[in-house]
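B., you asked whether I could sanity-check this one before it goes into the benchmark set. Here's the sequence:
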Amino acid sequence: MEVTLQPTERIDDLLKHQLKIIQSKEVFSFSMDAVLLAQFVSLPIQKGRVMDLCTGNGVIPLLMSTRSKAKMDALEIQPRVFDMAKRNVQLNQLSDQIEIHLGDLKDAPPLFGHGVYDVVTCNPPYMIGQTGERNVNEHFAIARHEICCTLEDVIRVSASLTKFGGKVALVHRPSRFSELVFLMRKYRIEPKRVRFVHPRVDAEANMVLVEGIKEGKPELKVLPPLIVYETDGTYSQELMEIYFGSKKGGE
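And here's what the prediction gave me:
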């Protein structure tokens, strides 16, 4: 399906999937954390409802649609990025499954309903308020810094949207892992699966994937670490599978 592109926009192939995605150097492009979250989260196969908060250009619901036939909503606060996400859904002819909404996630529960989603996902801004170097580009700043929402906002809203026994999955920085677990438990989302992502086997983790269950019983499973690069700088076999659907050496 043809869509209209803005002057700075391009269409990229979306990894191993037969999907296309509109991106622009003027706004924050998707990165590995979004791809890994879409692959990590437990999804209903045939039915159910899924919500993606802070959806950006919609890459997470696009990727999740390759694993699930569930109806998906996605919420984005920036009009420019929201428009890209809508066109990405149209470009991939997924309008029957994915609906993109413009709005503030803090307003989501009364608009979408309390306790109605089987799964809520979010790749939130990582940096607290004014910490770190604030980018002069507003789109980049909002994507990276807690300007429009805090981590507590994300988890509180996720818990409100999720049904009893539903799942909440997030990706974040390991430095905020203890805060993430504390807030999930505060809002009655029990962490159940955790996976740390390391750039190399001898390097500290630089990402953490966490999935919890609303009103779940305490029992945490720490999965094997995901290693991104081999010692020679090439992608690991698991990353090759996730990104390209192939093993190293063309196996």
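One thing to flag: Residues 199 and 228 are 5 Å apart (CA to CA). Otherwise nothing jumped out at me.
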